[in-house]
Design goal:
The complex is a heterodimer of chains A (about 290) and B (about 280). Chain A is an alpha/beta fold. Chain A is built from 11 helices and 11 strands. The complex binds iron/sulfur cluster (2 copies).
Chain lengths: ~290, ~280
């Protein structure tokens, strides 16, 4: 079983569009959406939810006003400034470290379990899918990502899947780090802009840091052919395989508006290019 | 002082385009400071080209063990909520990359065997471009915790004029740190099902934080009704539409800004700034 993670560093490069199409092209796989903060893959794959589970991140502190003597110890020790002068806890600041709970001499603080989101196992016409939704303004996205990955592995084992295809989160912080752990290949989707190039460099440093093999796909390459050539050259210098260049075509947006993966919707040049990407990725995964 | 944050549920909708153009348009009118709080992928500097100053390290306190004093009692591992410290075979092991710097282990160790040392998780860097004051934060590669770096950038906020904050995409902790307590938040979106879905998440976030907000529709043209209807239903003002054009996309691709390439946009962004000022009563 091989795990492919698709990430982009910068948002808006068309990562989910590509994943949606790979979901059609790859046979015998489990799908996973690790963009738990702003998950979009379900808009394309229209999963039918079969299991819903609560996700408990860390607890949140709660102060019992009856017991609290306003001694101020908790406010001194809380490094996240989560306790205000009226001894109310701001749940958007509380990280659930529990230091206040341990230190409170009056025993006025409890740590309350806190549901930070949900995760799902669903059926799609392209295979089973594990996905999640983190609550608004919640912490612990890395933990939820790790959970989605664990569940997708279990499911892949159970159904005997050949691949796990994962849509990753943007950025380079905790959710991305959690999604990178021990994948077989990270496919980086970039775009020919100065910002795309800059963010690609950061993500390649990250995959290098965690020693995950990487490959690059340039999306919307014809919007700035000169910048695409620079990206190509950059990949060559770094020894990172370039697995395809996808043109900017109306078919991509039309498919999106219809809520369909491009390769299912059209036989145009963008769809063909994505097929090429999958063939190249398959070869890399086989190595 | 007027703080305007620019955020978006979905990445790549044109957040940085809006933030940089707004900052440059307003820079002629009075003191303006630009804070790049998208510390995982800070790229406003690619459009603003500021002369950058010295880097300052952003650190969090992590525990270090005085072997002689540690009795391997295991209290530290018990209190750590992040599994960042463990006791194995009579020795304390720390995992600094998991540590949130809460200080619990050091505070609660009965033997006083832990002390804190600084771990670098990012940098803050100031700069200047013409009249525009620039600050950016950058998370170290391999570091997981973005919020302390965001907070370090916001600690540089000047107490006057206009402060423009470029936030990270999404709705979790790094975004919360960037837009908490600002006067107004612009939510940038695009007319696609993804854009609409993620706009809704962002709108719920600002509502939860009690921050007044308005929407900017980028790459407008086809499918705008989706977003327009949504804004109307939610009572969110749609403050500006930026049409899709290959020309605008090319300007962006090259790292250029609209207010400089196409002078009519200066007026557009100036008006946007004034409209926000009116809305928050400045
Ligand atoms: S649990 Fe930690 S973050 Fe939350 S209020 Fe207590 S000390 Fe502060
Ligand atoms: S400082 Fe807090 S998070 Fe870090 S190791 Fe100690 S208890 Fe754990």
């Amino acid at each position: 079983m091989k795990e492919l993670l698709v990430i982009s560093g910068k948002g808006g490069t068309g990562k989910t569009t590509i994943v949606g199409s790979l979901a059609v092209l790859a046979k015998n796989k489990v799908l996973a959406d690790c963009d738990v903060d702003a998950a979009d893959l379900h808009l394309l794959l229209r999963p039918e939810v079969q299991e819903v589970h609560q996700f408990f991140g860390l607890p949140k502190a709660k102060i019992d006003a009856e017991l609290c003597t306003h001694c101020g110890r908790c406010r001194q020790v809380c490094r996240f400034r989560a306790i205000d002068k009226d001894y109310q806890i701001d749940p958007t600041r509380c990280e659930g470290c529990g230091v206040c709970y341990y230190i409170c001499p009056a025993g006025a603080i409890t740590l309350e379990e806190h549901c930070s989101g949900h995760w799902y196992i669903s059926a799609t016409s392209f295979g089973p899918m594990v996905h999640a939704a983190l609550g608004i303004a919640e912490e612990n996205s890395g933990k939820l990502v790790a959970l989605v990955r664990e569940k997708s592995r279990e499911l892949a084992k159970k159904v005997g899947a050949q691949y796990i295809l994962t849509d990753g989160p943007p950025g380079i912080g905790c959710p991305v780090i959690a999604s990178l752990a021990s994948v077989d290949l990270a496919l980086l989707v970039t775009e020919p802009t100065v910002a795309g190039r800059h963010d690609l460099e950061r993500v390649l440093e990250l995959t290098g840091y965690f020693q995950v093999p990487a490959a690059v796909c340039i999306n919307k390459y014809d919007l700035a052919p000169d910048k695409s050539r620079e990206l190509e050259e950059y990949c060559r210098q770094r020894g990172v395989p370039l697995v395809g260049q996808v043109p900017f075509r109306a078919e991509v947006n039309q498919a999106l508006v219809q809520g369909k993966p491009v390769v299912e919707y059209s036989r145009g040049p963008a769809a063909k290019a994505i097929e090429g990407v999958w063939e190249a990725v398959k070869e890399l995964l086989a190595q | 002082m007027l703080q305007i944050a620019v955020a978006s549920g979905k990445g790549g909708t044109g957040k940085t385009t809006v933030a940089t153009n707004l900052a440059l348009a307003l820079a002629g009118e009075g003191p303006v400071q630009f804070l790049d709080c998208d510390v995982e992928e800070p790229n406003a500097h690619l459009f603003l080209h500021p002369a950058l100053g010295e880097e300052e390290a952003v650190t969090i306190p992590v525990p270090a063990v005085e072997e002689g004093q540690c009795t391997a009692c295991g209290r530290c591992a018990e209190v750590c909520a992040f599994n960042a410290i463990a006791v194995l075979a009579g020795h304390v092991l720390t995992f600094p990359e998991l540590c949130h710097g809460c200080g619990g282990c050091t505070l609660l160790c009965p033997e006083g065997a832990l002390r804190e040392e600084k771990r670098k998780i990012g940098i803050v860097q100031g700069g200047q471009r013409g009249e525009l004051v620039f600050v950016q934060g950058k998370l170290e590669i391999g570091a997981a915790l973005a919020p302390p770096v965001v907070e370090a950038v916001r600690a540089k906020e000047q107490g006057m004029g206009t402060v423009i904050i470029d936030a990270a995409p999404g709705t979790s902790c790094p975004v919360v740190a960037a837009i908490r307590d600002v006067d107004f938040c612009l939510l940038v979106t695009e007319p696609t099902p993804f854009g609409l879905h993620d706009l809704d998440l962002a709108a719920r976030l600002v509502a939860e934080l009690g921050v007044p907000a308005g929407v900017i529709l980028n790459r407008a043209g086809e499918g705008d009704e989706l977003v327009e209807e949504y804004c109307q239903r939610q009572g969110l003002p749609l403050l500006l539409k930026i049409p899709f054009s290959r020309n605008l996309a090319a300007i962006y691709a090259q790292g250029k800004v609209l207010v400089e390439e196409l002078p009519q946009w200066r007026e557009v962004f100036l008006n946007l700034g004034r409209e926000i000022g009116r809305r928050v009563g400045r």
